[in-house]
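ARCHIVE CARD
CATEGORY: sequence design from structure
SOURCE FIELD: tokenized fold
FIELD CONTENT:
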């Protein structure tokens, strides 16, 4: 949350960096270079031809070479030297200037970028820029939705929903399933269930059986929805039989089946069984190169090793996947929400408090939006303990209350329990026995529910 970020000192640091960039980096630049930087700041990654399309010029390669030669926070994304990315802090500062300048048509820049990406059949980026330009991105919607899902771009899929027709189109089952998948991962459980029910009703009404891979996808998305809604037994009942259907003809769906079954085993405190599911299908998972399944596989494996006390292997799995994901999608990707809390817990256990904070604080908004129950509670407990150790008890309580509110809103008793336990520790540290007793009573009430069992 923004409040939490500011409380941890992140906001002040960002202002200092922004001032440094304005005064030391941007001010001395030739006007044509700064103009190029402004126009291309709408891009998550840069290619000479893409820059030409967005800027309406033919000097993209020359400009990128000049920027690289002058060490302007530009990093290469491939060995051929064709794809680049600005440093996130520099890009943020440029975007701030672009949005407050008023003399550049930002929607037109996004529209040009969308057209270029669509011509290259890079659908996920084409859709992101089309939406930023205020367009519906209806062309090649199915391919675009699958591309976004494979990247794990949940926010864009959810944002896209309001641009699509309200009526369900029988020819767009795959698109609708991907939207339901995104809603489940955004923890909008009721909306996801309604869409899945509508897809089933629609399919039955039109008399055509779903393709086998689509049927498996429908079932596994429902299992994902129930798992994230903390209905673990219901999710296992749906997904466990699907393991027999792997491979189902869609390697992305195969990955979803294995990952959510492993997740359910973890939620039921069975880390070895979670690992065994992944070992059973490791060949299928390795063959599937899409980003989301690869990252989520690393998440469940790292979580399993962490539960078993194997910190080295947990760190290896999570750190490698986080580097891989952020190289492709940037630092604000949903992958960081799942992996950063694991790495932060390992850092905290190793006495590396600053490293834990640097993993969590820049990603708090993403963690709030996409992190499953364990990771959410883990991340905020670490930050609260750090604040408590520094004597900032009000800040510790505020962090825990924020996370507890999200957990309550989503019905996550498993996350509420450890957060309440940590609030008791804060109250006792403050000498407030009355508050500690009241919190203990709430915790004891939670412990009587099956959902919280094993977490208290």
């Amino acid at each position: 949350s923004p409040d939490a970020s500011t409380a941890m000192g992140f906001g002040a640091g960002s202002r200092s960096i922004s001032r440094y960039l304005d005064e030391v980096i941007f001010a001395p630049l030739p006007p044509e270079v700064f103009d190029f930087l402004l126009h291309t700041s709408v891009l998550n990654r840069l290619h000479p031809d893409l820059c030409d399309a967005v800027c309406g010029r033919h000097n993209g390669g020359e400009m990128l070479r000049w920027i690289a030669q002058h060490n302007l926070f530009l990093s290469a994304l491939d060995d051929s030297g064709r794809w680049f990315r600005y440093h996130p802090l520099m890009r943020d500062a440029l975007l701030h200037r672009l949005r407050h300048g008023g003399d550049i048509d930002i929607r037109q820049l996004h529209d040009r970028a969308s057209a270029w990406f669509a011509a290259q059949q890079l659908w996920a980026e084409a859709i992101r820029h089309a939406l930023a330009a205020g367009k519906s991105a209806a062309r090649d919607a199915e391919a675009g939705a699958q591309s976004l899902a494979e990247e794990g771009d949940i926010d864009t899929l959810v944002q896209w929903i309001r641009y699509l027709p309200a009526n369900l189109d029988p020819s767009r089952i795959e698109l609708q399933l991907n939207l339901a998948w995104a809603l489940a991962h955004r923890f909008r459980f009721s909306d996801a269930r309604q869409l899945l029910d509508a897809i089933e009703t629609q399919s039955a009404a039109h008399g055509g059986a779903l393709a086998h891979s689509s049927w498996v996808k429908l079932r596994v998305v429902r299992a994902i929805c129930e798992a994230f809604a903390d209905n673990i037994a219901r999710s296992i009942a749906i997904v466990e039989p699907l393991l027999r259907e792997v491979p189902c003809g869609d390697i992305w769906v195969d990955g979803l089946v294995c990952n959510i079954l492993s997740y359910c085993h973890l939620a039921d405190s069975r880390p070895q069984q979670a690992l065994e599911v992944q070992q059973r299908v490791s060949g299928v998972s390795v063959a599937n190169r899409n980003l989301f399944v690869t990252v989520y596989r690393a998440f469940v494996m790292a979580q399993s090793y962490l539960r078993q006390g194997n910190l080295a292997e947990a760190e290896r799995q999570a750190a490698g996947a986080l580097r891989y994901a952020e190289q492709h999608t940037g630092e604000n990707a949903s992958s960081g929400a799942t992996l950063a809390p694991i790495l932060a817990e390992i850092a905290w256990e190793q006495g590396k408090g600053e490293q834990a904070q640097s993993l969590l604080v820049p990603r708090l908004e993403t963690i709030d939006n996409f992190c499953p129950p364990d990771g959410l509670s883990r991340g905020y407990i670490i930050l609260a303990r750090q604040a408590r150790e520094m004597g900032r008890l009000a800040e510790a309580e505020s962090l825990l209350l924020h996370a507890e509110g999200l957990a309550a809103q989503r019905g996550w008793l498993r996350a509420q329990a450890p957060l309440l336990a940590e609030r008791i520790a804060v109250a006792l540290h403050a000498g407030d026995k009355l508050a500690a007793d009241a919190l203990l009573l709430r915790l004891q009430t939670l412990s009587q529910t099956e959902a919280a069992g094993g977490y208290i």
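CARD ANNOTATION: The mean pLDDT is 88. The first strand starts at residue 74 and ends at 76.
SHELF: design records, drawer C
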